[in-house]
Prior knowledge:
There is one protein chain. The protein is mostly helical. The chain has 2 domains: 12-40 and 177-287, no CATH class; 44-173, no CATH class. The chain contains 12 helices and 2 strands. The chain has helices spanning 2-11, 14-41, 46-54, 58-78, 82-98, 103-125, 138-143, 150-155, 171-204, 209-239, 247-291, 296-308, and strands at 133-136, 165-169. Strands 1-2 form a two-stranded antiparallel sheet. α2 runs antiparallel to α11 and α3 (46-54) packs antiparallel against α6. It is elongated and about 95 Å long.
Amino acid sequence: MRGLRDLIGRLNAPRASRWLIGTSMLLLTLWLQAHLALAALHDDGTTVRNAITVYNSGDVRGQLSGAVDWVFDRGAELSSADAELASVNAALAAALQSGTITAPVSSALVDSLTSARDDLLAQFDGEAPVRGLAIGIGPLLSALEIPVTPELVQSLGLPASAVLAVPVADAQTVEVLRQRYGWAVLIDRWGLLVGMIAGAAGVILSERPLRTLAIVLGIGGALCLLAIPLFGVLNDWLVGGGAGGWSPLVAPLVTSAVDQIRPWLLPVGVGAMIVGAASFVGLLLLERRRSAPRAPEDDQEERAIRASTP
């Protein structure tokens, strides 16, 4: 029993409490990031398709051209079709910059991206060795009426009947991405629960659990309220091209993922701050009342009661 009491005494230390609370905040932050990333990654393509239609402007077309340039640059690095890809890249960039992105072009672009995403997720979820990743651009070129030559298909190592696809990642890169995806799934699945348990343990092990709980609630509520304008700043940064050529695709995905958690940020933040502040003030008043010096007549009355007690 003495050993158990000593163990509990060593655990009931301010350092352990602070460590657990800090770990809890870190896990909750990582969980939020993983949740947003996975929500954006698993979008069905409707968000991007609608965004391209809504943001159909010269700036967006220029950003899309930057994304196309990146795809063809990666294709040139991973294949021997430099000259052929350069000519197709130039034709595609000119077509995207020439006018409005029509519905067929938008649909072909989104279908190419979602097909590559589905292939990537299938490799992430499988146990077989991964392979390289390619983005099919055949339907997009057809929608833009850009001819695909047999020489280009052959230079990419594809059968003549295959859909034209440009390689963008080798197997080693996909394996690294699979490991990161696995960590994101793990954190999204357990980060919230473990973070809440760690926070509760940190509060229980603190020297003043109720005061610590009030402070944690206040800080958590403030962070929820602070996240609302920060998400707005992030969206403006992405819409303004902060992510480079992928901004028109990344911005609506992130916005759609944030919209899933935005509705509860305000009520949870306000409620946590009110409860935390009220509890903290109430505890301070209670402690001050307990530590206030007692009046002399109260001491005399207590001594008289003790003297009359047999």
